[in-house]
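Would you kindly consider the sequence and fold I have copied below?
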Amino acid sequence: MRRPPLRTTALLLIVVAGLGCQRFTKEAADREVYGLLAEGRECVPELSGSLHVEAEDAIAESLRRREAYVLGVDDAVALAMVTRREYRTQREDVYLAALDLTFQRQQFRPLFSGGAGGGFSFDEEGTDIDGAADWSVTRALATGGSVVLSIATDFLTALTGNSTLRTAQTLIDAEIAVPLLRGAGRFVTLEPLRQAERDTLYALRGFARDQQVLRVDIATRVYDTLALQDTLENEERAYESLQRLVDEQAERAKAGEIREFEVDLARQDLLTADERRLRARRRLSQALDQLKLDLGIPMAAELEVDTAELVALRESGLGAVPYELDEAIELAGEKRLDLKNERGREQDAMRQVKIAVDDLKASVDLVVSGSLDTPGEQPWNIAEGDPTGSVGLDLDLPLERTAERNAYVRARISAMRARRDRQRLEDLVDFQVRNAWRSLLEARRSFEIQKEGVRLSERRVESTALLLQEGSADIRDRLDAEDARVEARNRLTAALVDYALALLELERDVGTLAVSAPDAAAIGANGFPPPEPEPTADAAGAAPADENAPADK
């Protein structure tokens, strides 16, 4: 059989290497990662929004270049799901978890390696041309062990005077190693892959949980800012009302109907009201800056909260309490994503104990190998090759297993800790739900109380105004009534906001809080650029829907 020329072999090596490198580009990583995430998120229906790291980052940077924002609660949450720095980091963590999974999947695919080299040398005795090429493929077995096939070719051309010496040889080696005790079986072999799949699932769940927490955090900031804005409006109205009162009383003092010190009392309250206005403005400005920081937008940007949110909140009323306490606790045990993750991590720790027990066993490997050496001048003549083979056992007795013993003890302790962590989180979830449910009932009752308080304060202002005109009340009664009305209005707004937030917190703690993905059309209508579509991918697989199912290859 004629040996292919060197240039043909070199060209083949370059083409194969180029095709192989296409699998190791960033674009290839993105396709595989986003394919895994697209299928993996089917196990986490609570998750919303895009998982595309760079596309969302580009949108975030474009949004940060805006000069002004007018946001309600939903708009603020949608904006935060794009621009908030911590949220973007959490999205990247999900990507990195899936990226680790791609590596573990690759370990159970055929792994190719190859290379070639050559040289040219000469001296007074002649000229030598030599070269070598080697290829190998390794495949890990799901049941343990591996299969290795390698091909090596060496050639030499020596030119000495008028004579030419050519030698060439191809060596084909194959080896199968199968563990019989330590490291045998799918349970042990596939553990790194199984754990990577579960870690990806945990990351998706954790991100969905982060979205629920983000929804409440941003809503809290927006509602608190709205309450401060309403407080400022109340203080402004109170100041204007006191200013009118001072003017009226000054006219009455000139007419001799009242004494001058009563006018001074009103002027003192007017100064106090002016100071309250200043404090309310400062608190509102500080709240707006804090909201900018939480949203991840520049401090120099203009930001307003949409007062229609508070109007809608007042018009919608309180509504019914969504759950009875027992129902809320039961739902939380089923729905809380962080609790699902903690239960899964306890299972992981228990599996690691079994893995550690396996490491204490003796190592007994069945090794089957074979080789084929071609004739010296016919490297591709397989038919004339010289085959050899062998079958044997490699034994490593467990005479020294101190490190493995310690690892086993650590694994047992880790499993006990994981059980306690799960129990603690279950108790914490129970506590959070009970506390949130009680807070909701308290906020509901508080709103009714403050609503009645506003009605009484309004009536008090009206009655003291009439009594003051009749001379049956003094200026202090009128001023106290004004102060009470302002305070009652502020408390009513605070009670309304507290109820709205208590409802969100209860749904968050139960795990049923829905978070809508940013609406591209709506955001675009407000001057935001619509997000780019998330790329599709042909994935090699995805995290299993059943987290207890073993990885299968």
